[in-house]
């Protein structure tokens, strides 16, 4: 009996202990539930809503680009794109599913190895929930095949998107540039969620890159309800995106196309600039390329073909090409000598065909006339392009004064015209050479600089700017490519006609500029001028200018004695041909520079091209004809129509479906 009593007591104690333990646990759980509900309830309610409701950005429509007359240069067109996402929220499961789907897709539409790797990398970076664009510009045959296989392709969808379109690819590729896919570097440098959206393209070169923030617009947002797997259940709210601003360029498309046609077949560039306003009316670089290929994603074969072309079509030679300016630089040397007072306006210097370097026992020749030009003043020296005259003028002026004048004329630094890839050229100085750790600056360096050779480098854009500042009376006009911009729905306003420069004066004495301009007029319109054969015969359109021939390969004494011709050399070793000029001579309005790579001679190759360009621009006269701006597409209400001018892909006729 006692044993039963003891057992009962033990059972009761254990039951009480267990009950107390359970009661304690229930108390703790109750307290925790109370805490979560009463104290932290609002915080967890917000977190639950964030898990249930997802806000996703809406891509804005990219702004349009027009030429100065309202002709579209960059628009948007509709396209079908293939997207791949995930049905699962776990990244490991999502990536396994994506690899399986991509293998199946490869049997429907071929997917290359690099594209396969890109898609997986982007899915991993986007955490596999945000869809990734697999292919754009789908044909109806491809759409039909994908739709037919949709049950076996989880996470795959087709949507209607927009893609950039360039109506004049060859003529405008270097100025407009192109858009391309967002790279990992772009994502690292920006926290804009818009860049993660499938199909997003951003500016990579040219105006597209320089004006990226203006053209991109502002993203909208859509609020959707999602399930536990992250898939959209329904749309709750939407704020539409704001399209990017539209741009009006200073480029005249008709002139640009003419310049391109005139440079056809050459590795060459040309720039036409309004000397009053600084508007760049044409900037051509040949050969060009199809920038639509980059907008739709260029193939490896297309990329390699562009890279392997010896004429380098991807380089904007007008803004990136850097060349010795050769004799076109002699105006700088002349101004520096005149401004420094070391050369008088009527002073004459003697050319005997060569000069000797002091203490070197070397000769510097007058390449145009080895027999010597005799006595010349500054205008005559420009007319006949006498090297010996400018050797002596450079020695008198010194490198410091020459570099100072060159900088004022726009050489040696980027012009900031609106192209991110623009090169700055090179204006050598004493400090520059000292910084290289070589021998100090010598008289031979000054001689070379005086005729635009040696280390001196300039771009065609800089040479056009230099010419504009000389012929407009010494005003510091700045080149520009963007004339105006306007937000969505607003009208693009053409800039008013301007007859006189409003830029500040560069401080050159008018009589010195006049002497240089007289020399440039004599280059073209005098019988002894180096470009007399390329003159414009209509007196009211007459042009002035300066030829230049830049050495690519140093001519040895033996080659000079053998009178070895440039035609005997391989193409890539021949001289570059240059010409700078302006027109009309009485009231300059347009300046032009032409550089023909390996064109042998400025007078025979570059000058005739410049003559035709300056004749054409005066006939069109874009700077003084505002009525050419009267284009309905420049009205904000009509600009959007240009963006959708290319219709949506239309389905094939009934009965012609694909399987």
TrEMBL record:
Tell me the segments the record calls region Disordered: 620-659
Q: Which UniProt keywords apply?
A: Carboxypeptidase, Cell inner membrane, Cell membrane, Cell shape, Cell wall biogenesis/degradation, Hydrolase, Membrane, Peptidoglycan synthesis, Protease, Transmembrane, Transmembrane helix
The membrane topology term of the UniProt record is: Single-pass membrane protein
Domain of life (superkingdom): Bacteria
The Penicillin-binding protein dimerisation domain, residue ranges:
59-236
According to the UniProt entry, which residue ranges have a biased composition of type Low complexity? Answer: 637-647
> In this protein, which residues make up the domain named Penicillin-binding protein transpeptidase?
269-614
Q: Where in the cell is it found?
A: Cell membrane; Membrane
* GO terms (BP aspect): cell wall organization; peptidoglycan biosynthetic process; proteolysis; regulation of cell shape
Assigned GO CC terms: plasma membrane
Q: Its Enzyme Commission number?
A: 3.4.16.4
Which GO molecular function annotations are given, in alphabetical order? penicillin binding; peptidoglycan L,D-transpeptidase activity; serine-type D-Ala-D-Ala carboxypeptidase activity
Biased amino acid composition, Pro residues: 648-659
What PANTHER family does the record tag this protein with?
PEPTIDOGLYCAN D,D-TRANSPEPTIDASE, PEPTIDOGLYCAN D,D-TRANSPEPTIDASE MRDA
Task: Read off the NCBIfam families from this record.
Answer: pbp2_mrdA (TIGR03423)
Protein name (record) = Penicillin-binding protein 2
């Amino acid at each position: 009996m006692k044993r039963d009593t003891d057992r009962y007591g033990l059972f009761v104690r254990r039951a009480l202990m267990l009950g107390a333990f359970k009661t304690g646990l229930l108390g703790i759980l109750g307290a925790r539930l109370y805490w979560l509900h009463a104290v932290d309830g609002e915080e967890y309610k917000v977190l639950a809503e964030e898990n249930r409701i997802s806000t996703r950005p809406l891509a804005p429509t990219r702004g349009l680009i027009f030429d100065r007359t309202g002709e579209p240069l960059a628009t948007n067109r509709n396209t079908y794109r293939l997207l791949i996402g995930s049905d699962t929220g776990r990244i490991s499961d999502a990536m396994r599913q994506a690899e399986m789907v991509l293998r199946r897709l490869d049997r429907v539409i071929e997917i290359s190895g690099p594209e396969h790797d890109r898609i997986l990398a982007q899915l991993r970076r986007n955490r596999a929930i945000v869809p990734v664009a697999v292919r754009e510009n789908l044909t109806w045959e491809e759409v039909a095949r994908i739709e037919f296989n949709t049950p076996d392709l989880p996470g795959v969808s087709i949507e209607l998107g927009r893609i950039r379109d360039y109506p004049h690819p060859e003529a405008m590729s270097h100025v407009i540039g192109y858009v391309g896919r967002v790279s990992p570097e772009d994502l690292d440098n920006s926290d804009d969620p818009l860049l993660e959206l499938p199909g997003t393209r951003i500016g990579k070169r040219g105006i597209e890159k320089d004006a990226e923030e203006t053209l991109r617009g502002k993203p909208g947002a859509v609020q959707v309800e999602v399930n536990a797997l992250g898939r959209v259940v329904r749309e709750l709210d939407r704020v539409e995106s704001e399209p990017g601003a539209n741009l009006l360029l200073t480029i005249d498309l008709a002139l640009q196309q003419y310049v391109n046609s005139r440079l056809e077949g050459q590795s060459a560039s040309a720039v036409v600039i309004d000397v009053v306003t600084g508007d760049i009316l044409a900037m051509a670089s040949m050969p060009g390329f199809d920038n639509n290929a980059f907008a739709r994603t260029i193939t490896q074969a297309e990329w390699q073909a562009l890279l392997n072309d010896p004429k380098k079509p991807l380089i904007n030679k007008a803004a990136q090409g850097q060349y010795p300016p050769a004799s076109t630089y002699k105006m700088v040397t002349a101004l520096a000598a005149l401004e420094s007072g070391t050369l008088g306006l009527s002073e004459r210097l003697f050319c005997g065909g060569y000069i000797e370097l002091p203490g070197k026992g070397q000769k510097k020749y007058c390449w145009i006339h080895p027999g010597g030009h005799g006595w010349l003043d500054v205008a005559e020296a420009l007319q006949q392009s006498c090297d010996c005259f400018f050797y002596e003028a450079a020695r008198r002026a010194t490198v410091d004064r020459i570099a100072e004048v060159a900088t004022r004329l726009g050489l040696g630094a980027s012009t900031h015209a609106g192209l991110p890839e623009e090169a700055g050229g090179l204006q050598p100085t004493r400090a520059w050479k000292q910084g290289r750790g070589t021998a100090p600056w010598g008289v031979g360096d000054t001689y070379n600089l005086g005729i635009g050779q040696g280390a001196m480098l300039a771009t065609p854009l800089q040479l056009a700017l230099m010419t504009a500042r000389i012929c407009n009376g010494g005003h510091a006009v700045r080149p520009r490519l963007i004339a105006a911009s306007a937000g969505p729905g607003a009208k693009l306003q053409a800039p008013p006609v301007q007859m006189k420069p409003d830029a500040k004066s560069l401080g050159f004495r008018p009589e010195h500029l006049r002497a240089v301009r007289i020399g440039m007029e004599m280059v073209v319109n005098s019988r002894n001028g180096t470009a007399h054969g390329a003159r414009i015969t209509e007196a009211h359109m007459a042009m002035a200018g300066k030829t230049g021939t830049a050495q690519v390969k140093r001519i040895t004494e033996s080659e000079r004695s053998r009178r070895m011709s440039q035609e005997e050399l391989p193409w890539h070793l021949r001289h570059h041909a240059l010409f700078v000029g302006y027109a009309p001579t009485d009231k300059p309005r347009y300046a032009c520079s032409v550089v023909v790579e390996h064109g042998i001679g400025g007078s025979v190759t570059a000058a005739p091209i410049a003559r035709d360009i300056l004749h054409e621009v005066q006939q069109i006269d874009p700077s003084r004809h505002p009525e050419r701006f009267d284009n309905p597409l420049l009205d904000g209400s009509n600009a959007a129509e240009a963006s959708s001018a290319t219709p949506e892909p239309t389905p094939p006729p009934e009965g012609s479906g694909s399987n």
